[in-house]
Design a protein that fits this description.
Order of helices and strands: HHHHHHEEHEEEEH
Largest sheet: 6 strands, mixed
Number of helices: 8
Strand order of the largest sheet: 2-1-6-5-4-3
CATH class of the largest domain: Alpha Beta
Structural class: alpha+beta
CATH architecture of the largest domain: Roll
Strand content: 25-35%
Radius of gyration: 19 Å
Number of domains: 2
Length: about 200
């Protein structure tokens, strides 16, 4: 395996883990992260989640099983790009059904507005598709980009970047969308390729 392939694999595994962790019930996520990442004993975890040490051990075990069974993101950048392009084409065309078709039924869309009010999580294909229809606005220009090693986009209005969007694609469907909308953080990035 080439170093570039190893880096892409590491990125995709990291993104997959984040997507799966986000989908876990809070008690399972806490038990898994505290025990498996930080070696916190189950008796301490149990007291934190209001359960016995044996129940905390079971929570972590369930989380591990869900993580093992979770599908891994598509590694082929061309396949990722095709799905992301289909998403934006459907959004531009106002085609709600086509949007839903490229989204996993359990898709999660997270928006990071930084200090501004508005950070939000939207779940489910129909809710995310409804939100994506805003790309039908012709003033929003979509620039394909690599975001965290995967297909993504930089969105501009009047030449000014307003959003950086990363996608996680599994089995030719979008399972997660992460949008950075914080103007201060966007302004601090080198996006010279847009000029």
């Amino acid at each position: 395996m080439e170093p570039e392939d190893e880096a892409l694999l590491a990125d995709s595994v990291g993104l997959a883990l984040l997507v799966v962790l986000d989908a876990l019930p809070p008690a399972e996520r806490l038990a898994f992260v505290l025990h498996d990442m930080f070696a916190v004993p189950f008796d301490e975890i149990g007291s934190m989640v209001g359960r016995s040490p044996a129940a905390a051990r079971q929570l972590a075990s369930r989380a591990r099983r869900r993580i093992r069974e979770a599908p891994t993101p598509d590694r082929d950048p061309r396949r990722q790009r095709a799905v992301v392009d289909a998403f934006f084409a459907a959004a531009r065309g106002g085609d709600f059904e086509a949007l839903v078709a490229v989204l996993d039924p359990e898709v999660v869309h997270r928006s990071d507005w930084g200090a501004l009010p508005g950070s939000a999580v939207v779940r489910g294909a129909e809710s995310v598709a409804a939100q994506a229809l805003r790309f039908a606005d012709p003033s929003r220009i979509v620039h394909p980009a690599l975001v965290n090693g995967a297909a993504g986009a930089v969105i501009t209005v009047d030449g000014k970047p307003i959003s950086i969007v990363g996608f996680t694609v599994v089995n030719d469907r979008i399972v997660a969308i992460d949008a950075l909308v914080d103007p201060e953080r966007i302004a601090s990035l080198d996006l010279a390729f847009l000029s």
